[in-house]
Structures are given as C-alpha cells and as structure tokens.
Amino acid sequence: MASSDPPMPTDAELSILRVLWQRGPSTVRAVQEHLGAEAGYTTVLKLLQIMLDKGLVTRDESQRAHVYEAAVSEPATQRRLIDDLLDRAFGGSLRALVMRALGRDRVSDDDLNEIRALVDDLEASDDRSDT
Predict the structure, then answer these.
(1) CB atoms within 10 A of CB 56
(2) Does residue 7 contact residue 77 with C-beta atoms inside 8 Å?
(3) HSE-CB for 14 with a 13 A CA cutoff
(4) 107 pLDDT band (50/70/90 cuts)?
(5) What is the end-to-end Cα distance of the chain in Å, rounded?
(6) Is residue 117 domain-resident?
(7) What is the model's pLDDT at position 90?
(8) How far apart are CA 63 and CA 3, in angstroms?
(9) What total number of domains does the chain contain?
(10) pTM here?
(11) 2 domain-assigned
C-alpha cells in the first residue's frame, strides 16, 4: 500500500461506500435511508465523519445538508481488498485463491463462460506482448 492510500475500509464503511458508488454524491439521510434498518442516522453520520478523516470520502459543505462522495473508486478498493485477501489467506498464491473460488457449489455456467472468455483474452494479450 502506497503511503498516500487511505486505510482499508471496515465492513460498515464498505457498506456506505457501496451506497455512494451506486447513488453518487449523497446526504447522510439518503445513505441512511438506502441502508434501511441496517444503521441509524447518527451511526451513519459518525461513520461518514470517520471516513472523511481517513480520506475515504469527501464532503461538500456548500449547502445546509452536507453531501458526501466516495474519494476512492470501487475498482481500486476491490483490487486492494483482493490483494489483502490474497496475501493474508492464500500466501500470495493467485492460483490457490482462484481454485478455492471455483471449487464453490455456486459457480454457474454463465460465470464459467465469462471466466473462460477472460482467460482467453488474457492469453491472447500475453501472446501479443511476446512478439
């Protein structure tokens, strides 16, 4: 992790980030309503303030109701979470992670077809870079 990267989000912070990635910039009330009974208004407000301090969100204070926006992208956050899982749970072995994921009962034919296409694309790009 580069020194400029914000810390990894907690599970609760990740839930809020998912709302902001899906909805875009939102007020505390909008985030809380989207989460539903999962969290109260003051809990969401406190978490957003913590996330602001951590650099996970930004806040627009130009209006009465402050608007929060994700300061980290969904793909970058997913990459960091996968890298962390890969290192901690699989000793850095991408093969072990993929084999464990594919060994689950819930892999659909559509998922397998998409995975095959991704592997084919990766192999094709590796072939082009070798020439």
Answers:
(1) 25
(2) no
(3) 11
(4) confident
(5) 33
(6) yes
(7) 94
(8) 32
(9) 2
(10) 0.80
(11) no
Classify residue 113: in a domain, yes or no: yes
pLDDT at 3: 52
Section 30-36 average pLDDT: 94
Q: Could you tell me if 81 and 115 lie in one domain?
A: yes
State the Cα torsion 41-69-23-110 to the nearest 10°: -120
What is the model's pLDDT at position 82? Answer: 94
Q: How far apart are CA 128 and CA 131, in angstroms?
A: 6
55 lies in which domain range?
11-70
64 and 90 in one domain?
no
Residue 6 confidence (pLDDT): 86
Quote the tokens at residue 65: 């109701």
How far is C-alpha 80 from the chain's CA centre?
8
Element (H, E) at 113: helix 109-130
Structural tokens at position 53: 């301090």
| Backbone phi and psi for residue 107, each to the nearest 5 degrees, phi listed first | -85, 115
